[in-house]
Amino acid sequence: MYIPKANEETRLPVLQAMMRAHPLAAVVTMGAGGLIASHIPLVCEDAEGAEFGVLKGHVSRANSQWRDLAEGVDALVIFAGAQHYISAGWYPGKAEDGKEVPTWNYVTVHAYGPLRVVEDAAWMLAHLTSLTDTHEASSEVPWKVGDAPAEFIATMMKGIVGFELPIRRLEGKWKVSQNRSERDRLAVADALEGIGSPESLRMKELVGRGE
């Protein structure tokens, strides 16, 4: 990924926090048929011997991606975070000399590593429990894997395949107006606040912090 120095994020806690906050990722692999991608909710876990952590997920057994993995080629996992269009009209310079163009601000993390297929039932149950507990935590009455009959869960697990990816390389790009002057950043932040959507307010926070 092309990352200008001003947009580079290397702090591991920040990168892992972003992956956990935006767990639906594009998992891209190379196989005999070329590149293939699946959009999968992932769990990012710390693990001994894995400096950047381990990603765990699962796919439908009917998904051919897990059967078609080129040996020795790392997978690429793309996490997309906050993003928003930035209008050229928001910059004060537009009214002064017109020399402005629009852009798009965004936050993304790319993780690379070998993808290992897992078909162990105990591993799968632990993974599904972790994934479910994480995303049910904010519910008033959280659903748990144990709420369903064990036989039903066992049958459902036969239709999926697990995988884990120890992260070998991690890249973070925070393109949030760091290359602009303070005057421009304040103008962008004001415009984003005026829109008032969850997406614009999140980007306003990032632009305002100058991350």
TrEMBL record:
InterPro entries, A to Z: Split_barrel_FMN-bd, TR_PAI2-type
SUPFAM superfamilies for the chain: FMN-binding split barrel
Domain of life assignment: Bacteria
Database matches in PANTHER family: PROTEASE SYNTHASE AND SPORULATION PROTEIN PAI 2 (PTHR35802)
Protein's recorded name: Transcriptional regulator
Species, as recorded: Granulicella aggregans
